[in-house]
Amino acid sequence: MIRWLVRGVLVLLLAAVVAAAGFRIAASLRERQEAEAVLPEGGRLVETGAGRIFVMEAGEGPAVLFVHGTAAWSGLWRPTLEAVAARGYRAIAFDLPPFGFSERATDGDYARRSQAARILALVQALEVRPVLVAHSFGAAPGVEAVMAEPAAFAGLVVVDGAVGLDAPARGLPALLQPMWLREAALSLTATNPLLTRQLLASLLHVKAAATPDIAELLQRPMVRRGSTRAFAEWLPSLLVPDPDARSARPEGWAALPAGAELIWGDRDSVTPLAQGEALAALAPEAHLQVLEGVGHIPQIEAPEPFRAALLAALDRIVAR
User: Fold this and answer.
1) d(C-alpha 289, C-alpha 147), whole Å
2) Which of 101, 136, 316, 317 could be disulfide-bonded to 155 (CB atoms 3.0-4.6 Å)?
């Protein structure tokens, strides 16, 4: 009996290894395109001191710079860019590496402060002083950039930000320390096109917002060569807190310039509203807008209420 049990466990383990290897090979076969060959229309690569950054722009006027969240890219902001541009702003969205179509880090460094340096390099290259709008995990390096050089920005809007405030120190789980295991795990999940829509829906309160069109949009950059490898290099920055990041400490938020704006879904299960309330209480004269019946990605779950809240926030910032 024990012999058959051991054999059964070994067969299951072997099947899991074969399946993981199969998904990793499939990812390698999909990821064969150079970024330049698949650049979306309506965008451009900007040369910066931190590499080439892909941007999409609309409109003229005061600059508003949009930072996306995990595994997204600037294309997800397109409808928002158009609405903001119609209000009289220069709306700029960019791809934060390793996601989207921007140049990836040759050293695999995607730590929060390194990402903040990329944002500052882009601001310098564009010669703008923008209001920064940062969503989800993009809020961590976005706010870090504002804290590093507050004079470089006209204001800050945080949308359901994932900043890891006072997160306890921890290392990368042992199972994910080998690069090949991280690649296997990501090829099964984040870079697996069969799961894009399901993974997106898991982040949302309004599940119907995870449409096939949005899933297809998110998949577009994943055909780039080495996407799974790049995501695996980035993964530690998601899982391991940076204890030296100012944006992860209460005193950093307390030192922000007055008047930060926050927009939060009251049904956000990824970064619950209590986190937004805590950040708003720390930042001087911060203003928090709560969107009812909305989860973690309000720009696709409730586009019109989100745009109204965003435009109100931008107008308040510019009027100061």
Assistant:
1) 22
2) 317
Task: Show pLDDT as tens, one digit a residue, over the chain (320 residues).
Answer: 444 433 433 333 333 444 555 655 766 567 788 888 899 999 999 999 999 999 999 999 999 999 999 999 999 999 999 999 999 999 999 999 999 999 999 999 999 999 999 999 999 999 999 999 999 999 999 999 999 999 999 999 999 999 999 888 889 999 999 999 999 999 999 999 999 999 999 999 999 999 999 999 999 999 999 999 999 999 999 999 888 899 999 999 999 999 999 999 999 999 999 999 999 999 999 999 999 999 999 999 999 999 999 999 999 999 98
Cis peptide before 98 (omega within 30 of 0): yes
| Burial 205-232, CB ≥16 within 10 A → b, else e | bbeebbeeebbebbbebbbbebbbbbbb
Instruction: Give the structural domain span for 251.
Output: 39-170+243-319
Separation between Cα atoms, residue 167 and residue 154, nearest integer Å:
28
Q: Determine contact, residues 147/255, Cβ cutoff 8 Å.
A: yes
Q: Is the residue at 151 inside a domain?
A: yes
Our count of domains for the chain comes to 1
Per DSSP, what are the bridge partners of residue 264? Answer: 290
This prediction's pTM: 0.91
Assigned domain for 311 exists: yes
CATH number of the domain to which 82 belongs: 3.40.50.1820
Residue 83 lies in a domain: yes
Strand runs (DSSP E) across the chain, as ranges? 43-48, 51-58, 63-67, 90-94, 131-135, 155-159, 261-265, 287-291
